Amino acid sequence: MKIYISDISGFFTEEGVKTLLSLASEERRKKAERFLKIEDKIRCLYAEILLKKVHPDMTDKGFLYDKKGKPYIPGGAPFSISHSGKYVAVMVGEGGIDIEQIKDVNEKVLERTLSNAETEFLSAEEEKTDAFFKLWTLKEAVAKAMGTGFKLAPAEIECADKKGIRKTIDIGGKQMYLSVFDLAGYKLAVCGETAADGYETIVELTEMDIADFGKMFEIMGKSFPTDERRSKEEQKKLFENPVYKVYCVKEKEVKAFIAVWEFECFVYIEHFAVSPEYRNEGLGSKILAALKEMYNKKICLEVEPSEIDMAKRRINFYERNGFYLNEHPYIQPPISKGKKEVPLMIMTSGAPITKQEFEEIKHTLYKEVYKKHS
């Protein structure tokens, strides 16, 4: 059993809808078009796209629904999907999953959905709304595991007693395990054949809007020495160049960005940085994995020689993520007027490069990025 979640708030735009429509199956596109709100369309579309990323049996045809309304892939492993607010969650394995954004709940809802034992449990809880959503998401997850939805009244799916949240529940004579996870403002619940010990966050890169340039430049200033970055005006002007793209991970603000040049035979990462408050959380590795998934070609980048500890750590980070250090001598020309040239090294994805391949990459960078002939 594996559990995955993804924050899709970066897609909550008209452009985001267009991007997801281009990636979704025909059936999923038809389903999404029934929704009026853009957020509902996006959640619907992305559910299938996340499943394609994580399910070994998923194809471009998408998935089907059985007579009870439970999704399935013909001949494939079982799975469950849920989405709420800015999150989409997928469980690959037997059981059910549910994620819900925490909101205020009135007493009539409590009366309709809780058993007497659950009501007794809730009355003893200090944070009643929080406790209710633990119960509600578990009920949803169990209902999905049953494959019936709420044909049973929610109160009949009892997930707690006066002692607390149950750890297991019987479904058709089979013991299933219950797990609940806290996310900021959300609850994630799983009903599975084993107890869930965590979940994997799937990072999605979205093309950065020019409106977020200020935050990008702020992160850049905290991450790169002066001679490895342009002036604010020069950097912003690059957005007019169709070969230059900036992708980001964003919630309320940009958490990280990766700026690339898309050339015919390779992609060049010019700047890649995570905002200091989000470092050491594994975000950088997930961004590189997402970038590799986007481009079916070699990716290269520049690093400082491993003469200081910081440079060694940076090289080690890229090596852990599938990049190779090439020993060919390389000088970064001045990135703009008044800047100094910088002795650097080239790292490439997949495998080391030959001297000829290095010269071709160097020639392209000198000509297109630094406006200098090698």
Characterization of the model:
It is a single chain. This protein is α+β, with helices and mostly antiparallel strands and 374 residues long. The chain folds into 2 domains: 200 residues, Ribosomal Protein L22, Chain A, CATH 3.90.470.20; 164 residues, Gcn5-related N-acetyltransferase (GNAT) (Aminopeptidase), CATH 3.40.630.30. Helices cover 33% and strands 29% of the residues. The chain contains 11 helices and 19 strands. The strands form 5 sheets. A 7-stranded mixed beta sheet has the order 13-14-15-16-17-19-18, sandwiched between helices. It has a 4-stranded mixed beta sheet with strand order 4-5-1-12, with helices on one face. A hairpin with a 3-residue loop joins strand 14 and strand 15. The longest helix is centred in the middle third of the chain and has 19 residues. The N and C termini lie far apart (53 Å). The model has no long low-confidence stretch (mean pLDDT 91).
Sum up the structure in keywords.
about 375 residues, alpha+beta, Ribosomal Protein L22, Chain A, Aminopeptidase, seven-stranded mixed sheet, four-stranded mixed sheet, about 30% strand, elongated
CATH class of the largest domain: Alpha Beta
CATH topology of the largest domain: Ribosomal Protein L22, Chain A
The helix content, as a percent range, equals 25-40%
What structural category characterises the helix and strand content? Answer: alpha+beta
CATH H-level superfamily of the largest domain? 4'-phosphopantetheinyl transferase domain
Quote the beta fraction. Answer: 25-35%
Task: Compute the number of helices.
Answer: 11
Low-confidence stretches: none
- Cα Rg: 25 Å
Named CATH architecture of the largest domain: Alpha-Beta Complex
